[in-house]
Design brief:
Number of strands: 3
Order of helices and strands: EHHEEH
Number of domains: 1
Number of helices: 3
CATH class: Mainly Alpha
Helix content: 25-40%
Largest sheet: 3 strands, antiparallel
Shape: globular
CATH architecture: Orthogonal Bundle
Strand content: 15-25%
Distance between the termini: 15 Å
CATH topology: Arc Repressor Mutant, subunit A
CATH superfamily: YehU-like
């Protein structure tokens, strides 16, 4: 079993597995989450969404589906490697 199918972490989904609307909704939820800090400079939600999409496409971030909770979340790749 590879790391993407580890039931403790969920299943990694490719970016294109979600519809554009679902992907935007997931990213929007991620960037507007309480406690998310983007530094001293205030940035628009669209800028933040573009940055996260770029991170997903480059592999710096991943979409992980939890079949038990039937939820998807975005996780930084380095967080996955620490688990």
């Amino acid at each position: 079993m590879d790391d993407t199918d580890d039931p403790r972490r969920g299943t990694e989904l490719p970016v294109d597995a979600l519809s554009p609307e679902a992907l935007r909704g997931l990213i929007e939820d991620f960037v507007t989450r309480d406690g998310t800090d983007y530094g001293a400079v205030e940035r628009s939600i669209d800028d933040k969404i573009r940055d996260v999409l770029r991170q997903l496409e480059s592999g710096e971030a991943r979409i992980v589906f939890d079949p038990e909770g039937e939820t998807a979340s975005i996780t930084l790749a380095r967080e996955l490697s620490r688990s």
